[in-house]
Amino acid sequence: PSKKLQSKRLSVVAALDKLPATRHDLSSFSVDVVMLPPLKGSQAQMCMLTVKGRMEDKGTDSQWRKRLFHRTFILISPAPPDSLSAGWQIAISNDQLNIRSAPYAPSTSAPATAAQAPIPQPGAPGA
Predict the structure, then answer these.
(1) Which phi and psi angles does 62 have, rounded to 5°?
(2) Pair 89, 78: CB distance under 8 Å
(3) What is the pLDDT along the chain (127 residues), one digit of tens a residue?
(4) Whose CA is closest to 56, among 101, 105, 16, 15?
């Protein structure tokens, strides 16, 4: 099994605790929610929650590095019995986090516009 794949509560928390320090640009966040059909034979409601944005993480050299992240949660309600007994109405069935380098800063200048070719008029040469 993968060392990065965690499935038990304590191992998930331990893995999260090992992640580097981060700073997030909340103004860059984008959130999408999609309701999913219940699994066959299940009454549970599910939805997919996706969060995307910019962040920085601290490298081993203590320098902040610009990153882009994309995180997807599959949420299920009602929660499984062990989650309900802990007071949770919704449980995270799946959580996937993708992080990649953001090597460049977006340009603040207006994008260049394409030159538009002249439209020939009827009866003009080349029309």
Answers:
(1) 65, 15
(2) yes
(3) 566 777 777 888 888 888 888 999 999 999 999 999 888 888 888 999 999 999 999 988 989 999 999 999 999 987 677 777 777 788 888 899 999 998 666 555 555 555 555 555 666 555 4
(4) 101
- In 59-124, DSSP assigns E strands to 64-77, 91-101
Q: How far is CA 8 from CA 20, 29, 47, 92, 93, in A?
A: 21, 29, 21, 12, 12
pTM: 0.66
Cβ burial of 76 (10 Å; 0-12, 13-18, 19+) is buried
Structure tokens at 6: 């965690």
